[in-house]
């Protein structure tokens, strides 16, 4: 098990993970990062737009190893 | 009433008890034992001969999921009997374990039967506590399905605050829980729980020190969570009773 930190940027608000989460490996960390994008974006919708959420994963040395974003695009037609 | 035992304090929220009732409950609560965090009291399939009363600390009712995860479906706080229905239902369909350091009292089934058969006010109060447990479960169901995660977490904190206050156990810190445990209660991942907790902190609704959450202004938190504590059926919150 390795410790990973998940920093989340949600619109203008940034939360820096200081606790970390123990996970099996990098792939498990990627899976965790991807699985939180939609629920966190969902918390902000539909009130706070434009909506974009970015998760940056750092390893136990606090070095970034992965990042993923989810962005909402909307237009009147 | 600082000398009243924790079970009597909890049950008096249902209605007044006689001195004789309280004396009987004093006997029941006489020999607490201690348990560390993350210890199981009973697991799925057990057929226990006693029920557990929480004297201090926090206990949870949980189900283990096929992927090894855990869903926490109830919190038991000081004064709560963890598994009263076991005295009637027998075999456990879920597990019960501690979240924090706890003091507990084992109450034999036959004592529960005596309380039910020979003490009508206690019987009524135990029935009340079971109904309140159901009401809490209903509220958690609404919370999980219909509230945004930040409102859901704030709502949980308001509930715990009110339940602890009702037994005079609301001290400085509210919840000594990890993000993972909070996530297991709310049905979200620990990373999501961390994000939501951080949002509540940024709004000034909670303070967080290590894994301890404190609430600087409960009224403000209740307003944010749209919390209405009627479902806890505490006497002080009901009109004139």
Automatic annotation (TrEMBL), chain A:
Domain of life: Bacteria
Annotated Pfam families: DUF6894
High-level lineage: Bacteria, Pseudomonadati, Pseudomonadota, Alphaproteobacteria, Rhodobacterales
InterPro entries membership: DUF6894
Organism for this UniProt entry: Maritimibacter harenae
Positions of the DUF6894 domain: 3-70
Protein name as catalogued: DUF6894 domain-containing protein
TrEMBL record, chain B:
Keywords: DNA-binding, Transcription, Transcription regulation
GO terms of biological process kind: regulation of DNA-templated transcription
One of the record's GO molecular function terms: DNA binding
SMART domains, per database record: cNMP, HTH_CRP
Stretches assigned to the HTH crp-type domain: 147-219
Matching Pfam families: cNMP_binding (PF00027), HTH_Crp_2 (PF13545)
Gene3D superfamilies xrefs: Jelly Rolls, Winged helix-like DNA-binding domain superfamily/Winged helix DNA-binding domain
InterPro entries, A to Z: cNMP-bd_dom, cNMP-bd_dom_sf, HTH_CRP, RmlC-like_jellyroll, WH-like_DNA-bd_sf, WH_DNA-bd_sf
Name of this protein: Cyclic nucleotide-binding domain-containing protein
Organism: Maritimibacter harenae
Phylogenetic classification of the source organism: Bacteria, Pseudomonadati, Pseudomonadota, Alphaproteobacteria, Rhodobacterales
